């Protein structure tokens, strides 16, 4: 099978090696300069500290100084670094990207360009390439409910591969699916790319509900259900405004990813800490001390900017997202009352 190069040896980059190796791909894993120590450890056969699972034996490891070698003759390049770093990394590798058959985005985030405007990550990458007079291959957004540790351990997982050209997504779904990693192909690249970072904001809201329940010793199941449904509704509204299919929010990329992230994701853990009484800064520090990145903090800010930029009254339809934004900014609000106001149906 052809060569695939995964860029970023964090939890997800390392986890993605498992299904691709099992599907018979020649897998290369490249780590950023932050990952060199991690790669030294992984090359001994030790488990990845963030997933608890070792790499498959067949994976070739490349250290930060070996980016060119890692990309040489690679047919597929997978971005698995934190989303904020994807554009910078892409700028460095435009030529090998142009020679690949496709670029996959595992990173989940929006992207802010130099003039302050917000774009979808894929849109920003195409703009960067265009400015450099380079043509990118098709972009495939890899999303859906995929917790890294379960994926790495080949536990049953249902990712979504989305591409404007659905035949590209279908081809990779055929070539990369395994009994444990069964890919759903989608032609709704926009809808999937909107859901991927938005569900992080909403997983924080679910964490907040759970933290409040723990803090008060009182059940909040009803409020949680209303929060969940409002979150799916807002993902659908946001996606539709950008030309995506609103039904995507009701599938694996929206509802499905919200379910796992809102149960066991890092964004949920961050929201739960705030519900328990931590400030945003304290919650962020506690997560950092555990070595856990919380991308929803930045992507909530960008999502709100993006919605404002899109206009057409979109922000008015996103009360839950605005509420999460208020919490992140440390605004003096009663979280339980504010959540209830954002998600309970209004009678007038
Ligand atoms: N974990 C999961 O379950 C899933 C994650 N994702 C997405 O995958 C992406 C990566 O997440 P994940 O692997 O979990 O996160 P990790 O924090 O485990 O790893 C992030 C990766 O980005 C690197 N990185 C950190 N800072 C920088 C920087 N300044 N410049 C370049 N690279 C940097 C990290 O290096 P270092 O290791 O030194 O921190 C690591 O390679 C995210 O966008 C996430 O949303 C998608 C699906 C599931
Ligand atoms: O995206 C994820 C699962 O699909 C993981 O989310 P977290 O970044 O919150 O852990």
TrEMBL record:
Chain positions recorded as NAD(+) binding sites: 8-13, 148, 266
Active site: 199 (proton acceptor)
Domain Glycerol-3-phosphate dehydrogenase NAD-dependent N-terminal per the UniProt entry, residue ranges: 4-168
Assigned EC number: 1.1.1.94
A Gene Ontology molecular function term of the record: glycerol-3-phosphate dehydrogenase (NADP+) activity
Keyword Oxidoreductase assigned: yes
Sites where the protein binds substrate: 108, 266-267
GO biological process, alphabetically ordered: carbohydrate metabolic process; glycerol-3-phosphate catabolic process; phospholipid biosynthetic process
Transmembrane segments: none
Domain of life of the native organism: Bacteria
One GO CC term, this protein: cytosol
Keywords, sorted A to Z: Lipid biosynthesis, Lipid metabolism, NAD, Oxidoreductase, Phospholipid biosynthesis, Phospholipid metabolism
Enzymatic reactions: sn-glycerol 3-phosphate + NADP(+) = dihydroxyacetone phosphate + NADPH + H(+)
Residue ranges occupied by any Glycerol-3-phosphate dehydrogenase NAD-dependent C-terminal domain in the UniProt entry: 188-330
Region forming the signal peptide: none
PANTHER family with a match to the protein in the record: GLYCEROL-3-PHOSPHATE DEHYDROGENASE, GLYCEROL-3-PHOSPHATE DEHYDROGENASE [NAD(+)] 2, CHLOROPLASTIC
The family this protein is said to belong to: Belongs to the NAD-dependent glycerol-3-phosphate dehydrogenase family.
Stated name of the protein: Glycerol-3-phosphate dehydrogenase
